[in-house]
Amino acid sequence: MGSLPPPPSSTTQKPEPSNNNKTLTLINPNDLLHLFQSQQRYLNHFFQNLDLSQTLAFTQTLLNSTGTIFFSGVGKSGFVAQKISQTLVSLGIKSSFLNPQDALHGDIGIVSKSDILVLFSKSGNTEELLKLIGFARAKGAFLISITSSSKPTNLLSNGCDMNVHLPLERELCPFDLAPVTSAAIQMVFGDTVAIALMAARNMTKEEYAANHPAGRIGKSLIFKVKDLMKKQEELPLCKEGDLIMDQLMELSSKGCGCLLVIDDEHHLIGTFTDGDLRRTLKASGEGIFKLTVGEMCHRNPRIIGPDAMAVDAMKIMESPPSPVQFLPVINHENVVIGIITLHGLVSAGL
Q1: Which of 7, 92, 182, 301 is deepest in the core (most CB within 10 A)?
Q2: Residue 98 and residue 70 in contact, taking contact as beta carbons nearer than 8 Å
Q3: What is the CA radius of gyration of the chain?
Q4: CB of 12 closer than 8 Å to CB of 29
């Protein structure tokens, strides 16, 4: 892992004292930096000592699963188990979180002999999980423990079909008690395995997006320019010989902030924006009444095709040397078929 930056200098501005006459407790920047450096060292210990053969066997077992992969844990390990299960579900993998207490009161009925039960526990001696494994084994499930204890008293690893040891030097907590570092390495381990499964299953962007239809992730992978562009009567079109002043209604009424200048075959010649209008008026004064759109239009505008991804359209709009608010959409013959606007992209949730 990379190195952390040095702490702020002692000349860093201190916060203003409050008006309630209470003394503020300030965090020593060196102490804060030391904590991050310590956590970095503990995480490095995990990466450097993780048994790859155990990890490979675990990942391969999940990949070959024909049933549901259940995850379980208590406390912080339970939160991690829920999160990893949700990640697998988002990848199209049959998975669920099994609350160990609820499992002993009926929920274990969902477990079958084709399923896998993954149990997260730092100590390997979590009472609720130890009670669960006997009943899960009776249901025929394959049991895997994910623990950080290497002691012979790690009862969970002794009672499961497979164990993965997550090396833990110590917790960041000064008392070595609060599950801070252990929860972090559990999350890193689980999420990395999830991405390995994603790669092994050759999951495509389209498949991933289909599982996230309502979020920004899905929208950025699903929506194409042709799905969000304005077209036909919505387009602010004009000819290059049209007088600027005759096209003010077209410029303002279509809500695009521009005119698309075309020839008789609808080939794109250029664009004329409301900003161009203001600059022309300032420079020409009354002379603007005699100027045509073609004389003042921008003849090399940014463009995009209808099959491009909408998120790429936004990147083009925001690219240097300066951002723009719209892109003419043209086909392979340079014929204008639409316009996509920044407002339209934002309204779509991109």
Answers
A1: 182
A2: yes
A3: 31
A4: yes
Q: Are 147 and 179 in contact (CB under 8 A)?
A: no
User: How far apart are alpha carbons 243 and 259 in whole angstroms?
Assistant: 12
User: Using CA atoms, how far apart are residues 284 and 146, in angstroms rounded to an integer?
Assistant: 75
Tell me the whole-structure pTM to 2 decimals.
0.68
Between the two ends of the chain, the Cα-to-Cα distance in Å is 32
Give me 251's structure tokens. Answer: 């410029």
User: Which H or E element spans position 226?
Assistant: helix 225-228
Which tokens belong to 305? 């095709």
The 3-class SS string of 153-174 reads CCHHHHHCCEEEECCCCCCCCC
pLDDT per position as a tens digit, 204-251: 877 887 777 666 666 676 789 999 999 999 999 999 999 999 999 999
State the Cα–Cα distance between residues 88 and 204, nearest whole angstrom.
15
Cβ pair 124, 143 in contact under 8 A: no
Gap between the Cα atoms of 43 and 2, Å rounded: 12
Token pair for 45: 């210990």
CA distance 168 to 171: 8
The pairing of strands 237-239 and 162-165 is unpaired
